[in-house]
Amino acid sequence: MIIYNKESGIITLSTKNTTYQMQVDKHKYLMHLYYGKKAAGDFGQLITGADRGFSGNPFDAGDERVYSLDQFPLEFPFRGSADFRTPAFVMQNPDGSKGCDLRFKEINISDKKYTLRGLPTSYANDGERISTVDISLADDVSGIEVHLLYGVFEDRDVITRAVRVCNKGKGEMKLLKVSSASFDMPFGDYDFITFHGRHAMERQFQRVPVEHGKYEIGSLRGASSHQYNPFVMLAEREAGEYAGDCIGIHFVYSGNFLAEAEKSQYGSTRVIMGLPDDMFSWSLKSGESFDAPEVLMAYSDKGFSELSNIFHEFIRENIERGYWKHRRRPVLINNWEATYFNFDKEKLISIAREASKFGVEMLVLDDGWFGKRESDTSGLGDWKVNTKKLGGTLGELSKEINDLGMKFGLWFEPEMISEDSDLFRAHPDWVIRIPDRDYSRSRFQLVLDFSRKEVVDYIFNEMTEVLDNANIAYIKWDMNRSLTDIYSKALSAECQGEMMHRFMLGTYDLLERLCTRYPEMLIEGCAGGGGRFDTGMLAYESQIWCSDNTDAIDRCLIQYGTSFGYPTITMGAHVSAVPNEQTGRVTPFETRGAVAMPGTFGYELDPNKLSEEDKRQIQEQIDTFIEDYEVSHFGRYYRLSDPFEKSEISAWMSVAKDKKKAIFTAVALSAHANDIPHFVKMRGLDPEACYTVKELQKEFTGASLMYGGLPLPYGREYRSVMYHLSCE
Ligand code: GLA
């Protein structure tokens, strides 16, 4: 619900459990008053002013020296206002000055969710309660209007935000920073929680106090990146997994981003999420408008677990779309770790045939099926089937796979090009590089300039040529290098700052076209594993390969971090061979299955090389995965241990919405001789109910499992247990 009180200027957005409040003040500046637990009333008392030295006053405040934007909690701070904290918005006027004065102009409340041009956005399902508001702020001198767009998903407890900038003036403006969301908490001690990482070790939890100064994370790599994820949390110092106030912020975008947390001189905390100001500028001619990507925000007074579950539900219901949204995803086998580039038709069929015996439902043919692609040094961009290597057409191969009762999936890396490719020889000017300069290589490949429509059109046609001529049910969309040497031949010198955002718009355009043309195609995202794991991609890709690291023990950490922002249904996870390709670690087959099962599930190995016992387990694992799917992928998810803090175990569970079923998993990350016993307290059960734990053949009350806890079997390194709980 959204209420605007014209008299007081108070604008209140409310969801089932939260309230978000702003105020248009007497000088028509937009203040941020409150975001937190649902609460009636107004919060105007939180704005206090004092005569502050070195904090200037707006011209029309006259001699009112206590009125300074430098000390007020603001909703959308801009450069040029004598507020010296980090701005959310910076623009350059035709005379070169950087400044504006954004004052409230209009407010429009509606029940229609906004969309953004060329960008992914959340959407309301039929019958869902949604209200939106467009608050416009105008800079009278330049004619720039900034529209702050809010979507209030009442029952989901999520508030979305986005920004549209319109040039209603006569001159050409340059946008230098357009953040999508910003707010100031007037007081309090907060921690900033972010998820850092690296290739093959993504989304590691990090919590730092917001102290005086500024803490920022982001990406300038052209992808949201392995290094920092565009999901962050602001938590009160006391907040933890199951208690305390916290706010989560998702950026619905897959390219460069910047997330900032700043504590001001007067103790307020500002949080900003959006496009970065580095490597960005946008020329806005008279009559034009610019849409900045969407942000999702949620608040919980019950700690991180509640926040995660709010986002899990929202991503499943209001971000994911299309055919696979509510469908169980097929159990797949991917040939990458089994063969790398070294395969032929017989090899692929032998993998598929063996896997099909145990119930694997799809073969995914990874890198190496096209052009001259015998290694990672050549061939990208030449999406022509290598019929010699495949012993025939892709149509024939997919038919043979289908005849085994399996679906067929295929790997692409659409945005990339090898120097050693026919495409590069034909169009050397299609790559991203700075004229007359040497460029950086990465995995021997370069990036196509997707800011150019003709380049996107070409790749679309090449891909559809392949997809139309074989029975392909799934695409793995990869992206294996960062963007460097940023320059587009198609843009003028003044517009080069638009390149990286335009690249992203081109990528989304290609995804949108493919989703429209092949509505039942399952797309799995990938960027060297989890280098582009974000809610932007999840609007097109139903699942994302979580990491190139398939080691079950490392995966416990990676999936733990990922689960803060993202639901299990999106996490690509496979059982691979041991010793593990990335770590050399040997873990039991059972543990590898238990860790992959809460994800999208599949295998990344040659089943012909497995022991009879492991093969038997495949069958069992698939049966369990299918049986558990509803609970583990649509239930509530609980992290039961922090593997970063307590390095001995990793434990989690999923509980059905009606609490009648639950699945509990624990993995021994390490073990010691004469070890201390490890106990875990379960979560989310009905305390009154009596649960049978199938594997223990025992009954417990929910209360005894949640408040008392359960001992884990006496330790052996890398062992796991999976318990199925049910009650009548
Ligand atoms: C990336 C992916 C892998 C695999 C290779 C193929 O590294 O993350 O899963 O597809 O590319 O080159």
Short description:
By secondary structure, this protein is α+β, with helices and mostly antiparallel strands. It has 3 domains: 2-319, Beta-galactosidase, Chain A, domain 5 (Distorted Sandwich), CATH 2.70.98.60; 332-635, TIM Barrel; 649-726, Immunoglobulin-like, CATH 2.60.40.1180.
Descriptive overview:
By secondary structure, this protein is of the alpha+beta class. It has three domains: 2-319, Distorted Sandwich (Beta-galactosidase, Chain A, domain 5), CATH 2.70.98.60; 332-635, TIM Barrel; 649-726, Golgi alpha-mannosidase II (Immunoglobulin-like, Sandwich), CATH 2.60.40.1180. It has a nine-stranded antiparallel sheet. Strands 28-27-26-25-22-21-20-30-29 form a nine-stranded parallel sheet. Strands 5, 10, 13, 16, 17 and 18 form a six-stranded antiparallel sheet that branches. β11 (190-198) and β12 form a beta hairpin. α6 runs parallel beside α7, α8 (552-565) packs parallel to α9 (589-596) and α9 (589-596) packs parallel to α10. The radius of gyration is 27 Å and the shape is globular. The model has no long low-confidence stretch (mean pLDDT 97). Residues 336, 366-367, 411, 478, 480, 526, 528-529, 545, 548 line the site of alpha-D-galactopyranose.
